[in-house]
Design a protein that fits this description.
It is a single chain. By secondary structure, the protein is mostly helical. The protein folds into three domains: 113 residues; 151 residues, no CATH class; 54 residues, Roll (Nucleotide Exchange Factor Grpe, Chain A, domain 2), CATH 2.30.22. The protein is 67% helix and 7% strand. It has nine helices and six strands. Strand 4 and strand 5 form a beta hairpin. It is rod-shaped and about 190 Å long. It starts with a helix and ends with a strand. This is Mitochondria-eating protein. It is found in: Cytoplasm; Mitochondrion matrix; Mitochondrion outer membrane. Its main location: cytoplasm. InterPro entries: MIEAP, MIEAP_C.
């Protein structure tokens, strides 16, 4: 019985051991399977890691290449900007050189034209140097523009002038301004004429005395080489010299003192002396008197006498007699062809 019990117990233990072994084997298999799965996953993870590392390295390489390209582009941009700046400065320098060369070319052409044209135009107004911007025809055009523009603007000073003439009508004030403008133009012309003649005379006299030459007439002085050069130089510098005459107030100092006019007024004359009209007068009159021969501003017409309607046109009122001159006629030279018609205030002679 004891043996049976032991055998039974041993059998039960063996069964239990077999059961445990089976369970352990099962768990071992599960662990082995899980280990295999982990190993597989680990291999896959390792592969992904290696792939990511490779992609990372590729990205780093591409990023470095991009940085290198960017640096190259920045350098190229900087080089281009420097090149553009250099080219811009080069262009500016060349443009300045071109400007200087063009000016020298224009000056040489002007001088050549002056030298070539002087022999033709000297004392011969029928032949005109078309290269001269201040040739008589152009001066005639500017003379007409002076009357149409600055003269008309000066006539708008009626209210200012009226304070010096109490009790007079606007039409009477207008006539007074016309007389002052006419006086200013004629004084400017004659003063420029005197200044022009005095320049050549003084220069010729000094040269003749230095060279022990016996010259007496103005014509002798004008024909001196130094005076010819001075005349050409004076024409080239006409604008500059006219500016000096205007700025220094060298002209029309006796415009009031030597004038026999009932309504003359120093305040009105001072007003007009500072106007654009007078400035243009100085430039035009100076251009007139340095021509060869000199351009001619007509003498004043005698009031109450007939006038030539081919030379003068009526101002406001028509008629056949001169009341007063509004604007003198301009001729190419004395006894020469008319360049610009004058203007007179006219009236009809009573029968």
């Amino acid at each position: 019985i004891v043996l049976k019990n032991e055998i039974k117990s041993t059998k039960e233990q063996r069964q239990k051991q077999d059961y445990l072994n089976d369970d352990l084997n099962k768990k071992l298999k599960e662990l082995q399977e899980r280990t295999r799965q982990y190993q597989l996953e680990n291999n896959q993870t390792e592969e992904r890691y290696q792939l990511v590392c490779k992609e990372k390295d590729d990205l780093k390489l591409r990023l470095q290449q991009a940085f290198d390209q960017l640096n190259q582009k920045d350098k190229a941009k900087t080089d281009l900007e420097k090149m553009n700046l250099h080219q811009k400065h080069t262009i500016i320098d060349k443009e300045e050189v071109i400007t200087v060369l063009r000016k020298e070319k224009d000056d040489l052409q002007t001088r050549l034209s002056s030298v070539a044209g002087e022999k033709l135009t000297k004392g011969n107004p029928a032949i005109t140097d078309l290269g001269d911007p201040d040739r008589p025809m152009k001066i005639g055009e500017k003379y007409g523009e002076l009357y149409d523009n600055e003269w008309t603007d000066a006539m708008e000073n009626i209210k200012t002038v009226k304070q010096y003439y109490h009790g007079l009508k606007d039409s009477e004030i207008e006539e007074i301004i016309i007389h002052h403008l006419h006086r200013l133009l004629k004084c400017c012309y004659y003063d420029c004429l005197d200044r022009s003649d005095q320049q050549i005379r003084s220069l010729g006299k000094a040269f003749a005395e230095t060279m022990c030459m016996s010259l007496t007439s103005d014509e002798d002085f004008v024909n001196l080489p130094v005076c010819k050069e001075a005349s050409a130089f004076r024409k080239d510098k006409s604008k500059e010299f006219a500016n000096v005459l205007y700025q220094n107030k060298s002209l029309c100092k006796n415009a009031i003192d030597d004038w026999k006019y009932k309504f003359k007024n120093i305040n009105v004359m001072q007003l007009l002396l500072t106007s654009e009209f007078f400035e243009k007068c100085v430039h035009l009159c100076w251009s007139m008197v340095i021509q060869d021969p000199k351009m001619y501003l007509d003498e004043d017409l005698t009031p109450n006498t007939p006038f030539d309607k081919n030379t003068y046109k009526e101002f406001v009122r028509s008629g056949d007699r001169v009341a007063y001159v509004v604007w003198p006629a301009l001729f190419l030279h004395k006894d020469g062809p008319l360049l610009f018609k004058g203007v007179v205030q006219a009236y009809w002679k009573k029968s």
